[in-house]
Amino acid sequence: MVHLSSFLLKTYHGGHIVIRLAMAGHKQSNRPFYRIVAAYNKRARDSKYIEQLGSYDPLPNIYNEKLVSINSGRIKYWMGCGAHSTKPVAKLLGLAGFFPLHPMTVTETEFHRALAELAEEAAPEDGVKQQQL
Amino acid sequence: MAAFSAARCLFRSYSLVKNVDQNTGILIRCSRRMLCSAPSDSSSPDAHVKPQFLDSEVQDILTRITGLNLEKVFRPIKQELKPPKYKLMTDAQLEEATQSAREQAQRLLKMPPVLPERKPINDVLSEDKILEGMDTAKYVFTDITFNIPHRERFIVIREPTGTLRKASWEERDRILQVYFPKEGRRLTAPPVFKEENLKMVFGQDRHEDMLDLCQVQFEPDSSEYIRVHAATYEDLEKMGKYDLLRSTRHFGGLVWYLVNARRVDGLMIDMLQKDLLQDAVSLVGLFNKVHPHSETAQEASSQQAYGLDLLKIYAKWESQRAGYVELALQAYEQTSAESTV
């Protein structure tokens, strides 16, 4: 299967194929929206890609959901052709259950929890200080 | 090397996912088949196969009762304003055009299915306590592969507590509408479907529009669909306005609902008043098929009754307003006797 990737590399475009997040549309707006995309490694993040494999909306909607769509059939095809996935995509797919869970997700969760605990410890201290004042 | 082990992990998890795919697909297909087909072995000794809505005999009876009023089926609906087209035809061509119009009407009158209410989905795919507190929002993952039927699609939610569960039916409907929009369907149900607003709509005699809207918005086995349809049929039965649905595709559903609730009296009287004797007879026949243990059915089978006799048996045994039905029958017999004389 790795041979297929080198077959695709016949014309020089530099690098291999990756499955990554590309920001979709409209750099002016303060509203990010990502497309999960199979593209050549060396191309710019938002420029021409080979195929769109899904989407990811990082802002939650009114039901507090972040919508992610995954075209599992095509992702399987590209992974079979030797595409690599970047860290954010690997994390998303790990959360989905498509990939095994990414170790950095666990590390980040522990980090967030530690931060939250620090914030909690800080907040009662601030409250006490304000009362004293 | 790392890529190789990752690929091996991937293939292992892919095979797991593939098996889950097939198993859930088979399960869903089996459960759908079990819902549709009748139970083959029941506990009672003289178990009968309960006729379902989609049986060919039941559908035949219901299509006959619905009638085919071409004027009503092809009445002007709200559409783009175009100037009318006039065609010059011979008699034979007019016959052909009427025939094709009739076939088109029959296709338009195809009845929407009546399905039992769907069971809620409570599947948890994985519980990962290590992921608790990762994020304040849920992640909804949808599989947008093209060739899967919507009922078998994977729509999975990762909660902030770390559990990976399948989406419930309402969430599924909403998210499928986001990625595969159906025309006319909205993401949230329009407020017409609330109780008070339904009553207002019924007051304006717009039951048919209501049912069409419900058809577009909800899936046939969702609880909302069944609730709205039940409310509509109840109101129609209370007011006696069966004519509103008579030549539409919802009439079969109305008749099926009334027959299953055993409250066919109003409809029967309405039919007799409009001199639709054949329809009344087929209605009683359908009733006997669906409730073969009732006294009407047993009397009918013992006496091998047909036609008017069926109606007389029904009037005697089953109907609550027996006097009314018998009066109407007598009036019909008198008029038929006078017409023959």
UniProtKB/TrEMBL annotation, chain A:
Matching entries from InterPro entries are given as:
Ribosomal_bS16 (IPR000307)
The yes or no answer to whether the keyword Mitochondrion is present is: yes
Q: Does the keyword Nucleotidyltransferase apply?
A: no
Give the principal location in a single coarse category: mitochondrion
Q: Which GO terms describe its biological process?
A: mitochondrial translation
Where are the membrane-spanning stretches? none
- Give the protein's recorded name: Small ribosomal subunit protein bS16m
Q: Which gene encodes it?
A: MRPS16
TrEMBL record, chain B:
**Pfam families in alphabetical order:** MRP-S22 (PF10245)
InterPro entries for the chain: Ribosomal_mS22 (IPR019374)
GO cellular component term, pick one: mitochondrial small ribosomal subunit
A GO MF annotation of the entry reads: structural constituent of ribosome
The name this protein carries in UniProt is Mitochondrial ribosomal protein S22
Classification from the root reads: Eukaryota, Metazoa, Chordata, Craniata, Vertebrata
